[in-house]
């Protein structure tokens, strides 16, 4: 959760755990009791306290694992971010702040497969949402990364040029 935007974290964005519903409810209850998270009953999301967010990020930095967890976050976001199903606007709109937060991370290389794939999906959703300048920026970064990694004449690069 420390690699996501700290507000309105949907439980569906988190990786599946081997916990029962009862155990998950108890774990969230404990975090909530200590005010580490706040439940949002209207949308079943969680808000991570900003100091907890900062402290966990600092702990990951000190431990030397923040880049690893950021990469895992990008992988998870690629699994759950519904780029192809643009009809489900409420889901991908809820995920946009988290995708943006993860993509802004300077801890990973710009040209990783997960990052480029997520950047393209992000752009598609922004385009569908009518946020054309932001979408253009996302598509330009996608195209530039594919040019560097795959070459200018690769089919994936050419497809990203068409967007």
> Per the principal axes of the C-alpha atoms, what is the gross shape?
globular
Helical content class: 55-70%
Spatial ordering of strands, largest sheet: 1-3-2
SS content category: mainly alpha
Provide mean pLDDT, rounded.
84
Count the beta strands: 3
Gap between N and C termini: 32 Å
Note poorly predicted spans: none
Portion in beta strands: 5-15%
Strand count, sense and barrel status of the largest sheet are: 3 strands, antiparallel
Number of helices: 7
The helix/strand order is EHEEHHHHHH
Q: Which descriptors would you attach to this protein?
A:
163 residues, 3-stranded antiparallel sheet, 7 helices, 3 strands
Commentary on this structure:
A hairpin with a 4-residue loop joins strand 2 (37-40) and strand 3 (45-48). The chain has helices at residues 21-33, 50-63, 66-80, 89-103, 113-128, 132-150, 155-162; strands at 9-10, 37-40, 45-48. A three-stranded antiparallel beta sheet has the order 1-3-2. The chain starts with 8 loop residues before the first strand and ends with a helix. It is mostly helical. The protein contains seven helices and three strands, in the order E-H-E-E-H-H-H-H-H-H. The model has no long low-confidence stretch (mean pLDDT 84).
Brief digest:
The chain is mostly helical. Helix content is 61%, strand content 6%. A hairpin with a 4-residue loop joins strand 2 and strand 3 (45-48).
